[in-house]
Amino acid sequence: MTKYEILLLLDPELDDGRQGEIVGRVRELVERGEGSWDLHDVWGRRRLAYEIGHKAEGSYHLLQFTSDAATLDEISRVLRIDDAVMRHMATRRIEGSPARPVAVSAPARQDRGMEDAGVPDTGVPDTEDQDEAIEAETSSEVEEVEEEE
Fold first, then answer.
1. Residue 79 in contact with residue 63, Cβ under 8 Å?
2. Domain span at residue 75?
3. What's the distance, Cα to Cα, between the start and end of the chain in Å?
4. Phi, psi for residue 14 in degrees, rounded to 5
5. Total domains, the chain
6. Is 90 exceeded by the pLDDT of residue 15?
7. For 114-135, how does the pLDDT look when each residue is reduced to its tens digit (9 = 90+)?
8. C-alpha distances in Å from residue 3, one per residue of 87, 130, 139
9. Residue 102 falls within a domain, yes or no?
10. How far is Cα 34 from Cα 57, in angstroms, rounded to an integer?
11. Is position 54 within any domain?
12. What is the pLDDT of residues 42-91, one digit of tens each?
């Protein structure tokens, strides 16, 4: 038996009952295949990076379970058939990973310096530094020309 997790992206227009039916069907398949159901974590409704089927949002559910590969194949087959499932992704859980992962929302975008945003210094000057360097270089060339005259 292998530990798996499936991230489900369901149609956001489904009511909670229909979403529960889909998750219940997956749980039923796991238990029928003599696997164990470990976790159902509802991440809720989130905005998508791009539209899927003219929908800009989706409802996320994280499912964790232990089963054999044949059961996972059957679950994937059932999820592909269901029109309410916009996307799903099954992965093998890594040993030592947290038992209950946390869905993290993207931080709010603010106008702040790169250092404040936690972006490491790459050693490449940004445009302000480049402008200052060009200005300093130009002024030193002008001084040299004036001295020669």
1. no
2. 2-92
3. 86
4. -75, 145
5. 1
6. yes
7. 445 455 555 555 555 555 656 6
8. 20, 52, 66
9. no
10. 34
11. yes
12. 999 999 999 999 999 999 999 999 999 999 999 999 999 999 999 999 99
- 52 and 64 Cβ atoms separated by less than 8 Å: no
With respect to residue 101, please indicate whether it lies within any of the assigned structural domains. no
DSSP result, the chain: -EEEEEEEEE-TTS-HHHHHHHHHHHHHHHHHTT-EEEEEEEEEEEEEEEEETTEEEEEEEEEEEEE-HHHHHHHHHHHHH-TTEEEEEEEEPPTTS-SS----PPPPP----TTTTTPPP-S---HHHHHHHHHHHHHHHHHHHHHH-
Cα–Cα distance between 24 and 33 in angstroms, integer? Answer: 14
Mark 9-25 as b/e (b = at least 16 C-beta within 10 Å): bbbbeeeeeebeebbee
Query: pTM surpassing 0.70?
Result: no
Residue with tokens 């945003």: 117
Specify the CATH number for the domain of residue 80.
3.30.70.60
Does 125 map to a domain? no
